[in-house]
Amino acid sequence: MALIEPIIRPPAEADSFLLQVTTGCSSNTCTFCGAYLGKPFHLKPLNEIYSDIEKGGKRYKNTRRVFLIDGDVLVVGNNVLVPILKKIHEVFPKTTRIASYANGYNITERSSEELKELYDNKLRLIYIGLESGNQEILSRCKKKSTANEMIEAVKKANDAQIKSSVIVLLGLGGKKYSNQHARDTIIALNKMQPRYLSFLSVMLVPGTSLYGQMKTGEFEELNAQELLRETRDIISGLELEKTIFRTNHASNYLPIEGRFPHDKGNFVTLIDDALSGKIDLRNEYMRGL
Question: CA 67, CA 263: separation in Å to the nearest integer?
C-alpha cells in the first residue's frame, strides 16, 4: 500500500486503517493551510484503491475503523464512493465505522437519499473544518465553504444519522478580529450541535498566504494568553446539549477533554487556572501540526 505523502489524519483516527481515495484537497485555497501545498488533487485510480483494500484486509484482519484520506474524499460522487465503501465492508467485515474529512458543500450538495446511502454503507462520521463562524474571516482566509453552508451540512448529516466532528481554529481572526471570531463561532456551534468538537490553534506555516500576511504585519498572531482567553470566551458562550469536546491537538497550549454540558464549568475553571499560572502550558517546542 503506497500512500502518497504527506498524510493528514485526526488524532482520533490514530488506530484506524488509512485508505487513500484521493490525494490533496479539491479546495486547496485556505490561506492558513499548508497540508497539501504542492500536492495536486485527484482521485486515485480505482484499481489501486481496491488493491489497497485487499492488501489491508490480509494484513489487518480485525480492523474495525477505516479513515478515508486525503483531505476531500467526499467530493467524490456516490456512484464511485459507495462501491468503495461496500468493498471496505466486504474485506473488513468487522468494520463499525468509516470516517472522512468533508467540506460543507460535499454534504449540502448531496440529497438526503444520497447521505442515507452513505450511512447505510458504514460512513458514520465526518470531520468538518468550520474554522470560524465569522464569514468575513472565512472570506479573508479563502475558505470555499461558507459558515451557513457548514451549519447546514452538519444538520443535514445529522438528519442522516452521520455524526459530525467540527474543528475550530483558535486565533484565525488574529488580534484584530478575535472578538468577532469568538462571537460568531459560538453562534455557529450552538446551531450545529455537533457530536464532537475540537479546537486547534493557528500555527503559521512558511509558504502559506497567512504566513506572508504575518510577515507584512497584515495579520497579528495571538500569543498563548490571548489564545486561552479566546478559548474561554467561546466555551463560556456554548450551549451544547450532547457534545464530546477536546483540545488535545499538539497545536494547543492547554489540553482539555470532557463533555458538554456536564463539564463546561470545569473547562472554564481549568482555563482560569492556566491563565493565573497555576497550570503549566505546553512548551513551545512541543507544539506542532
Answer: 29
Strands (E), the chain: 17-20, 22-23, 42-43, 65-69, 97-102, 123-131, 163-170, 196-201, 243-246, 257-260
CATH number at residue 69: 3.20.20.70
Is 6 within a domain? no
Helix (H, G, I), strand (E, B) or coil at 264: helix
Radius of gyration in angstroms for the set of CA atoms belonging to the chain, rounded to a whole number: 19
Paired strand residues for 18? 67
In this structure, what C-alpha cell is assigned to residue 65?
475503523
Does some domain include residue 4? Answer: no
In a domain, 3, yes or no: no
Single out the residue of 34, 47, 51 nearest to residue 209, CA to CA: 34
The tens digit of pLDDT for each residue in 146-187 reads: 999 999 999 999 999 999 999 999 999 999 999 999 999 999
- The whole-angstrom separation of Cα 147 and Cα 145 is 7
Let me know: does 204 contact 198? Beta carbons within 8 Å: no
Report the pLDDT value the prediction gives residue 220, as an integer from 0 to 100.
96
Q: Residue 119: is its pLDDT beyond 80?
A: yes
**99 is in which domain, residue-wise?**
11-276
Tell me if 1 is assigned to some domain.
Answer: no
Total number of domains constituting the chain: 1
Interacting residues of 154 by C-beta distance below 8 A, sequence separation 6+: 107, 128, 164, 166, 192, 193, 194
Task: Please measure the distance between the N-terminal and C-terminal CA atoms of the chain and give it in whole angstroms.
Answer: 24
pTM of the model: 0.94
More confident of the two residues 2 and 275: 275
91 has a pLDDT exceeding 90? yes
Secondary structure class of 267 (helix, strand, coil): helix
